[in-house]
Write a structure and sequence with these properties.
Elements: E1 16-20, E2 30-36, E3 45-46, E4 51-57, E5 59-64, E6 67-72, E7 76-79, E8 85-89, E9 95-101, E10 109-110
Antiparallel strand pairs: 1-2, 2-9, 3-10, 4-7, 4-9, 5-6, 5-8
């Protein structure tokens, strides 16, 4: 069976559209289609599952545990379960990235705003 979702049908905010698998035939993945403005990004948090970031364009600076890394278009960042992490767009342009949550629902424990 094929299931098609139009991006325009996804809940969206200022910088991202959100897909949660449980709302779409129970598929075992959720994700954000993100367009992060310079100087913006989420506060420190963790998930009980892996999160995979596919950076399509721009520059993101990640803090993952005690490590800080810069990722640019064409790079993939993988964060293991229960590891505190955050990122900020550290470049001068909008950063486009896909943030994949390996779960049917997004579960986030926020450690800072």
């Amino acid at each position: 069976m094929v299931y098609v979702v139009n991006k325009a049908e996804l809940p969206s905010g200022v910088s991202a559209s959100q897909f949660e698998g449980y709302l779409h035939e129970g598929v075992n993945v959720s994700f954000f289609l993100s367009h992060t403005l310079p100087g913006h990004g989420p506060g420190l948090h963790w998930h009980p599952y892996e999160e995979v970031f596919i950076v399509q364009s721009g520059k993101l600076t990640f803090t993952v545990g005690d490590v800080t890394i810069e990722a640019t278009g064409g790079q993939i960042v993988i964060v293991q379960p229960e590891v505190p992490h955050k990122f900020i767009n550290s470049g001068p342009e909008i950063a486009c990235h896909v943030d994949i949550h390996v779960n049917t629902r997004m579960i986030t424990t926020w450690l800072e705003k």
